[in-house]
Request: fold
Amino acid sequence: MSSKQPAPGNDIPQNHPAFLPEEEREMTRRSFMKWMGAGAALVGVGLPACRRVEKYLVPYNEGPEWSVPGVETAYATCLSMGGSARPVLAACYEGRPVKLLPSLPYPDGPGLPATAQASILDLYDPGRSKHILFHGKPASGDEFRGAFSSWSRNLRDGGSIGLLLPETDSPLVHSMLEEITRKNPGVRVYHDSPVPAPGSAMQAGLPQEVRFRVRFTRAKRILALDCDFLHENPYGNTRDFIAARSPEGLHYKEENRNRTRLYAAEGRVSLTGAHADHRLPVSPARLAIFTEELFRYIAGRKFSSRFPQPAPEAPASLTERELAWLRRCGDDLYSHPGESLVLLGEDHPELSGCVWKLNRLLGAIGTCIQLLKAPASLPHGTLEDFIRDIRQKKTDIVFLLDSGNPVLDSAHGPALAEALNGTESIHLGMYEDETSRACRWHLPAAHPLEAWGVERDRRGRFCYRQPVILPLYGGISPEEVLSGLLSTKGQLITADNSPTHLSPVYHRARKCFERAVNPENKTAAWTEALQRGYSEETAYPPLSPQEESGFGAITPDVSVTDARTHADALGSGLLELQFCPDYTIGDGRWKRNAWMQECPDPVTGVSWAASAQVSPATFRRLGGTGSGPMRCTITASAGRMEVILCPIPGVAENLVVLPLGYGGMNHVAEGQWNSNGYELRTQVNQANGCGIPPDQVVLHGLPERTEAIQGPVVQLSPFTAGGSAAAALFTPPGADTVYQWKMAIDTSRCIGCNACMIACRAENNIPVVGRDQMAKGRALDWIRIDRYFTEEGALTAIPVACQQCGKAPCESVCPVNATVHTTEGLNAMVYARCWGTRYCATNCPYRARRFNFFDYAKASEEATRLQRNPNVTVRSRGVMEKCTYCVQMVERAKIRHKSRLMKEHPGQPSTTIRVTEKDLLLPDGEAQTACQLACPAAAITFGNVLDTSSAVFRAKSLPRHMNLLPSLGTEPGTGYLAPARNPNPAMEEQDREKIH
Ligand code: SF4
Reply:
């Protein structure tokens, strides 16, 4: 570590590559630029040329004529999320992928989840696996090639091979698995995932070859049963839901009289539940009883003769209040036939039959829910089958292909490790982890941006994965391994060792496309498909009405006797545990991703640590004092888990919501506690069936850093509009008459998903500061999400960045004019002038300015610096920084617009082209900020308020528009639209009663 660098504490471990001398780092800038030069030289020769062939390199001073430094080239590609694909655009600068953007034409979801955007950081992660290992020691290429040939020979000779993969809909992987099992009957396929895929519980009630999608535009009443569909929406397009729910429509253009009403019954506070009009806390164990009663109630209303109404008194397991809520919700759903639907969360597959019957009763099938016809998938086994087959010697060789870390995260971890140890096992993964250590061989896996592939989205569309860079660390893709096993010579050929630097998977991907689409002009169609990123014509066809009619047939057999017994057992004083993937690091796959670690949990506000939720009453029952949070240790039969326990209004009583994903190897920061939820899940499931006595949950004093690493969790009264403006000391400069940039954030749309925070990081080169610096309140995010809980447990998320005040209090106190007003209404920073007095931050009433205490950017790993956006200054120590409304994107849009104007006058010298002010005016939506582009809920509207036809003008003209702290007279450029719920008048009185 350089002597000038700040001591990193335990934010970033002392042995972190960032603090090693240059010569000890494996990934140097020079070596990277060698690869980059190879990439940049050939980007101009057609789409497949994003595979770069180094031997034909030309010096960069003869670079491709259209590659302009600082101007991005975007490639359509895709990521696999939860087993299905998400098309994205990879923005590259001179061959360097820098950020992932939403694919704008993609019909099922503008916006991009935070995790998808953050995966760009994993590409450069110097902690990725780089070497082939044999028994934990680096093996030579010759040793590995020899071994691979013997495995292929074994296969061709009729040997038995086991292939463990994550659940996937990839048509390319399916076709290769189909070919390999057809040619070699000894091959067995197994699937495993640490947590159920979003949407899988409802899918469990349908045959394999029938899929479904939700048409949110048609649904006017939605009940979410422990279903967080707004988080990375697996069912359909979130913007359709927002459009149907917004009082003024998606673009603030028309009055929406028949708005969607959202009900939620759940134990934890999810992003969807927090957004609901009515929310009932029901613990997971009692959800079955609730669902059964709801079915009986609605069926009773529809067929009173066959389904008698439930007894008027509340059943033992539902309170009177719950029953009243259920009936009013049921009445509302029932009175909107064909416009109501019920969605079920992935943790409750046992309720899928009941939920499909409910949807049939409500007339949702064929209207709000469309059933689709999918191809049948290959027969496969589970992880238990995999272990059993190894033990019984039914497989000679096993491959674990990008299958996560089952030794850590499955209930059979120790048994799996033992089985893998005793057989020829090959692990392909991006990191060395518990599973790689249990295997004989470990191969470094390629990042999705480094390998060819074909995936399917939930609607069935083929999405094409193009590599935008050669494998940085020699990674191999699962498709390359399968292709190697299928090859006649039994050789593993990758992009790195192919003579043409083109992976054989490219040809397979192209064939897969041609088989499905069967185009006339194959080359043109393939190029077009790659440019677009997906093929609409491959979407699953809908089921015919006759085929549809069989699903969800209404019969009264919805008995949940087991669930009742379980709920009764928990009622005898046990605390119920609910395990959920963490909102920031998911099921653990993002735990090395510092952007996601530094993002606050959208509900608890905690970053860099596992955070759990309980209700305030349960918190007090456990001995918690004050408003929390507290450090908590949960012990089970043979282990313990440490988390930050946060009292959150709205969580069901006697329920502890625990995050999965932490623990094990591969943390970015040292000092994270023993927070392995998987270990506890296994033990608790085996010992107590998800219930533990309260004395096993022990609260400790406040940990020294907890307060600071938790963002604002505040209970405030609702916004109030108006307020008198105080006298300002400030005289604004002359205003531009063409552009005045403003923003409106709709708090009734914002779900608090953090996608805007990550987009801002990627676009504006915001460095990671680490856990200790976060604890000192030195977060550098230019946008933060404040959370406001009402007493009833509803949560309103409010993104707050620099408000771009018209009369900015920060500008008048800067002694060196480092923060100044532009004529276009921006409050700009001149970094070169700033000398760090921090007067501006002190005078900012919105706490929106961030001070760069250390040279965080320099302290970051060299490889991750290559992710930086060349259009944004990298700030150094001692400089104040803040949101700029992505001024670089605005200026880029202006340049694009001007060059379009020029193209309208071909051959005419620019000096002779006459343009009016109106010609220069950017069309609305042309200039977008990074946060706006990423927001899946269209909560952020940005634009030129002088353009009266713009969406931002319309949003700012609405009566529910207001400013933060209006009485200060700062005239902020960013305004907020007050939450607009759509409550059921019959339930308002009930909801006024306090939940706790
Ligand atoms: S503004 Fe949009 S992206 Fe940001 S937290 Fe809200 S919903 Fe997510």
